[in-house]
Design goal:
Number of strands: 4
Largest sheet: 4 strands, antiparallel
Bound molecules: zinc ion
Strand content: 15-25%
Strand order of the largest sheet: 1-2-4-3
Number of helices: 4
């Protein structure tokens, strides 16, 4: 399903390879999802670390090599918490088709971050 205008705007400054994966993933995805964040400033990152939302100042968001994706219900009004694994499967499929390696935050052991995808 097509990405919203806001989601597309949030892909600005994101690495072209990752951007291509997200756009193709949206095209193949039978339910909507949004991009909550792509490129992040140092100040934002510092704030997230302070709030405990992130644990590193070396986040790939700072270089545009990470995105956060949230699957949505069909009316796009709520996050569909049951679909993160499904969305990750599709992201890996598309990344494979495009010969790009990605990492999913849902596979992390210490700080599980299911909305997070980054280039390896
Ligand atoms: Zn992230």
């Amino acid at each position: 399903m097509e990405l919203s205008k806001l989601s597309l705007e949030r892909l600005e400054g994101v690495d072209e390879r990752l951007k291509a994966i997200v756009i193709e993933c949206a095209a193949r995805c039978p339910y909507p999802f949004n991009v909550s964040e792509g490129l992040r400033t140092k100040e934002q990152q510092r704030e997230y670390v302070r709030q405990g939302k992130s644990r590193t100042m070396n986040s790939k968001h700072l270089t545009g090599k990470a995105v956060d994706l949230y699957p949505l219900t069909m009316n796009r009004k709520q996050v569909d918490w049951s679909r993160f694994e499904e969305l990750a499967d599709l992201m890996f499929q598309v990344a494979g088709d495009q010969d790009t390696e990605i990492v999913w935050g849902g596979h992390w052991k210490t700080f599980v971050d299911k909305c997070h995808f980054e280039l390896r």
